[in-house]
Amino acid sequence: MTVTTCFDTAARLGYEGVEIMITNRAETQDVDFIRSEVQRTGLPVLSLHAPTLLFMPRVMTSDHWEKLRITCRIAAQVGARSVVLHPPFRWQGDYARNFVTGVREISEETGITLAVENMYPWRAGIREVQVYLPDWNPIGYDYDAVTFDFSHAATAGMNALEAVKELFGRLHHIHLTDGAGSLKDEHLVPGRGHMPVAEALQYLAKENWSGDVVVEVNTRFTTSSRKREEMLIESLEFAKRHLGLRD
Predict the structure, then answer these.
(1) What is the Cα Rg of the chain in Å?
(2) What's the pLDDT at 221?
(3) How far apart are CA 73 and CA 110, in angstroms?
(4) Coil, strand or helix: which one is 216?
(5) 140 within a domain of the structure (yes/no)
(6) Residues 112, 216: one domain?
(7) Could you tell me the residue range of the domain that residue 150 belongs to?
(8) What local confidence, expressed as pLDDT, does residue 73 receive?
């Protein structure tokens, strides 16, 4: 979707805000444009997703630390309180070696929460390949804030409910989705996979958790815009039901 379509769809379906993935598309980096969409629709930007994916090494800059600083500056200017980012790849030099402390320093420098997302091991045949440093799994590392993605957890074979409980004190952000345990990152509509997504949301509600829940489902293979919207409505209703937010 374009940024405008994202805002329009979210507003029409009853969402309370959006997360914007920064890519090489100029509109995703255009502060004035994003502000105008916020004003037009009345929806805030809850978070930005930094361009830290494998196919985005040179988006904005090839300096990985500066990439985070720029993303945080954009976040502050558009009113987002957090930036989601993936852990680095092991070949990314100083950025990978000093990631944990560097993330904390940039967060303190910019005033924006950097929430590191759980990923999953890559697999070559029956072998797992460690491509992320310090690890694909944020548990056990000294991050101040974490994003938890249920599809990534499914691909990794994690016990998602226990992970959410263990990360609770640092859990800042949820990517609401699901997975059936495939080796592929599926991003199913929540409730259509095998993960304890409902139980995890109910646990967070019971514990008065105050982070953001952002729907991140794969709709690119749907046959029509109507089916896409049905998936997004179903995801929103799932969140409201299990977080106890129904009107």
Answers:
(1) 17
(2) 84
(3) 7
(4) coil
(5) no
(6) no
(7) 145-246
(8) 98
Token pair 């609770």 is at which residue? 168
CB contact at 8 A, 168 and 161: no
> DSSP assignment, residue 86?
P
CA 203 to chain centre: 20
| Cis? peptide before 138, omega within 30° of 0 | no
Q: Does 64 share its domain with 166?
A: no
CA gap 171, 180 in Å, rounded: 23
List, for residues 120-173, the tens digit of each pLDDT value: 998 866 678 889 999 999 999 999 999 999 999 999 999 999 999 999 999 999
Query: Does residue 138 fall inside a structural domain?
Result: no
H-helix or E-strand spanning residue 48: strand 45-49
Q: What is the CATH number of the domain that holds 16?
A: 3.20.20.150
CB 48 within 8 A of CB 3: no
Q: pLDDT tier at 78 (50, 70, 90 boundaries)?
A: very high
